[in-house]
Amino acid sequence: MNVYRAIKLLQIEHQPLNHSQVVIIDGNGKPQAQLSDLLADCMSKIDLFTDLSTTDTSSDVIDDLHLLTPLPNDVLEEYQKILDQPIAGINVALHKNLIELIYEPLM
To answer: Which superkingdom heads the taxonomic lineage of this protein's source (predicted)?
Structure first.
């Protein structure tokens, strides 16, 4: 599974994930701040400019953002990378009100 599939499939109370509720952690539970910040930025743009339910791939999201925003290509490339990032699992941290995506480093 990758980040795109996770954010597309996961819902809380039948609502899409709020970008402030999703973080990326490593296998030991340590937050990955840069990746979490990039994901939050990407998800905030998705919330504003596209509808995940109408997309089938992360490339569809990037195509929508390319058409609907003035974001430069290098930013869209970083968004594509974070959406395609493989994850090893998902942890629902109810006490923190977070969904933690467990980062799986690319080999």
So the answer is: Bacteria
The mean pLDDT value of the chain amounts to 92
pTM for this predicted structure: 0.91
Minimal CA–CA distance to 99: which of 107, 89, 62?
A: 89
Q: Domain span at residue 86?
A: 3-103
Q: Which amino acid is at 70?
A: P
- The angle, 0 to 180 degrees and rounded to 10, between the axes of the packed helices 58-68 and 73-84 is 160
* Three-state secondary structure call for residue 51: coil
Taking the C-alpha atoms of residue 63 and residue 12, their distance in angstroms, rounded to an integer, is: 26
Find the helix or strand (DSSP H, E) in which 75 lies: helix 73-84
Q: How many Cβ atoms are within 10 Å of 52's Cβ, its own excluded?
A: 18
Q: Which of 78, 66, 82 is nearest to 5 (CA)?
A: 82
